[in-house]
Design a protein that fits this description.
alpha+beta; 4-stranded antiparallel β-sheet
């Protein structure tokens, strides 16, 4: 019986790791819901550097770096390798992930209550600035070393993320949770980011062009 239970547990774990880009087994909580970790213990420099590297890789379309920095993607590749897929199968899985990241269809370029994929937030040409660092979530797959809040500004309407009414977003603030090794943790139902919905601005009155 113990052997059977172990096999079942292993199969279930594999199913979670092999779930698609839109699947998440964690518990959602509102953006800004920080853990009780004291701020003095947070490595703010490491957190902000890791978050900015991740944002830059998405902006530049450096999918290899995005995959290497995203914890659940690394675990997915490890699972394929451990299941006997070998390097060839692992490479195919990596290519699949890269193709999914490269998809920036207009239909998916919309912020919904459950979130949006990260590549639409950090689109080419967006401006990104650190807005703050805190202790982060306490309900993710690994302990959070730091959560960096990034203010994302879209210079032009034509390239901006859209809201639920299909209006172009001028700016918004998103949180990137990273572990002690700098891996980005999944903190959204769709995508890895926490979205501060109250931070979304549609004010283009000071914009130039568009």
């Amino acid at each position: 019986m113990a052997m059977v239970a172990g096999m079942v547990a292993g199969a279930l774990a594999g199913m979670v790791i092999k779930s698609g880009l839109h699947r998440w087994s964690g518990r959602a909580s509102p953006a800004g819901d920080a853990s009780s970790a004291p701020l003095a213990d947070i490595d703010k420099t490491m957190g902000s550097e890791a978050a900015l590297r991740y944002a830059q890789a998405l902006k530049e379309g450096d999918w290899e770096r995005v995959i290497d920095q995203t914890l659940w993607m690394r675990e997915r590749l490890d699972y394929v390798r451990l299941e006997g897929g070998g390097e060839e199968e692992t490479a195919r899985e990596r290519q699949y992930l890269a193709r999914r990241l490269a998809e920036r269809s207009p239909e998916e370029n919309q912020l919904r209550p459950e979130g949006v994929e990260d590549q639409f937030v950090f689109a080419p040409g967006v401006e990104v600035a650190v807005a703050g660092v805190d202790a982060g979530r306490d309900d993710l797959e690994r302990p959070v070393a730091a959560r960096t809040w990034l203010r994302v500004t879209y210079p032009r309407r034509a390239q901006a993320l859209r809201d639920e009414r299909n209006l172009p977003i001028r700016a918004m603030t998103v949180g990137v949770n990273v572990d002690e090794k700098g891996y980005v943790l999944k903190a959204g139902v769709i995508g890895n980011l926490e979205i501060d919905m109250d931070s979304v601005s549609r004010d283009w009155s000071m914009s130039v062009g568009g």
